[in-house]
Amino acid sequence: MATLLRSKLSNVATSVSNKSQAKMSGMFARMGFQAATDEEAVGFAHCDDLDMEHRQGLQMDILKSEGGEEGSEPPLEGDIHYQRDGTGPLPPSASKEAGVCSELSGQGKPKITAWEAGWNVTNAIQGMFVLGLPYAILHGGYLGLFLIIFAAVVCCYTGKILIACLYEENEDGEIVRVRDSYVDIANACCAPRFPTLGGRIVNVAQIIELVMTCILYVVVSGNLMYNSFPNLPVSQKSWSIIATAVLLPCAFLKNLKAVSKFSLLCTLAHFVINILVIAYCLSRARDWAWDKVKFYIDVKKFPISIGIIVFSYTSQIFLPSLEGNMQNPKEFHCMMNWTHIAACILKGLFALVAYLTWADETKEVITDNLPSTIRAVVNIFLVAKALLSYPLPFFAAVEVLERSLFQDGNRAFFPNCYGGDGRLKSWGLTLRCALVVFTLLMAIYVPHFALLMGLTGSLTGAGLCFLLPSLFHLKLLWRKLLWHHVFFDVAIFVIGGICSVSGFIHSLEGLIEAFRTNAED
């Protein structure tokens, strides 16, 4: 009897100890040690082999066995992540929120075809920022046209090698997807010494690009409205303030369902506007100034043109998610080829015919060169598109900031900006409003579309499209690369670095000069 009693007490103690260990694992996961992907989880576990064995072996068996016992406590959210096969049931919160990995991998969501993926890429690289390309030809001439082609080729290549970094060869020699996002690739390159440094760098670059995109939308809205109605006693700064007042409700956005309904119409409207501009230019083909197209460059302003061209091709940041949601990921390379070939042809033709039409009078936003009879109508459509496009990068920037600074467990720098009921706290709303106001202040003090676009393209565009993909490709797959791949990666990294530094310095000098001029006024 005593032996039986001691056996039962021993079993109870073991069960309690195992439950306690399971809860501790979940607690540590929620405190910030839970990785975003399985690859990060493995990378973290390599820092402690004993902990890895514990979580992946005995601990997971306990969780699975206890999950089926009647009256037992459900496994904690942090513990689900570490299960070997990932087949464990999701907790209620996970099923509602649908975590980052499941969203990116597309599990439980309808897959998209190659044509639909190509449409998404086209929307990213054929947006309204092509309106600044004729201005790039003004300072670059035929070399500017070459750069439009060169940037398309390089961005297509770096997009492919970025996706290649998502895959590795398993023990059976099969190529499997082990990462889900740009951040995962960056973290893998910096592991094990700095397992989160790469992701933080990519997040900072992404935030800068998203916020600068918002600023550009405000700048272009004020510019277009001012040039559409020059007789009204309203300055460009005042138009920017009016545009920002319209955009202020973006601070209250919880999702983008309402905004996304207009995205297709906006894109179609933009294509129609491009066709109208090209049609007007073709109607003046007899007056085209071929002799104005230069074989030399403006040394001071051409580096800005490089940033403008690069910025018009930025799409790498969302390519991993897009490829993960394709029905047939093998079609990704073909999709990248035809989208970038189409973008190269359309951008080159648009920039060339627009510059030939207005030559040295080409303005930063090409629609400002149109006759007043049609300029107002075209610009109003463009302003509507800019205002409806603003919530997309704004909401993405807010999500990155909130996840990095407010919702990252004990690693967060500030308290959570959401209450227990999921409602946004007052000070969280204030921060969102402050971000909208910040974009307005930048648009007021530096109302130069080309300079801002060149700075963003040189800083984050070149980094995300040229430098980081080639660097990550060399770091993760250098043992399997052929010599010509190594050559291409090194060449892109060197050329991209030179162009990025040169464009950034010249754009920054122009912005500082413009800022001083506006401050004096």
Description:
By secondary structure, this protein is mainly α. The chain has one domain (129-409, 424-520): Up-down Bundle (Amino acid/polyamine transporter I). The protein is built from 21 helices and two strands. The protein has a two-stranded antiparallel ribbon with strand order 1-2. The longest helix is centred in the C-terminal third of the chain and has 38 residues, at 483-520. It is globular. Belongs to the amino acid/polyamine transporter 2 family. Residues 65-97 are annotated as: Disordered. The chain crosses the membrane at residues 143-167, 207-226, 262-282, 302-322, 334-356, 376-401, 429-446, 452-474, 486-505.
How are the secondary structure elements laid out?
Layout: H1 2-33, H2 38-45, H3 49-67, H4 77-80, H5 92-97, H6 100-105, H7 114-125, H8 133-164, E1 167-169, E2 175-177, H9 182-190, H10 197-228, H11 236-247, H12 257-260, H13 263-283, H14 302-311, H15 319-324, H16 332-358, H17 372-389, H18 391-405, H19 426-445, H20 449-477, H21 483-520
Antiparallel strand pairs: 1-2
Helix pairs in contact: 1-3, 7-16, 8-14, 8-16, 8-20, 9-10, 9-20, 10-11, 10-17, 10-18, 10-19, 10-20, 11-19, 13-16, 13-17, 14-20, 14-21, 20-21
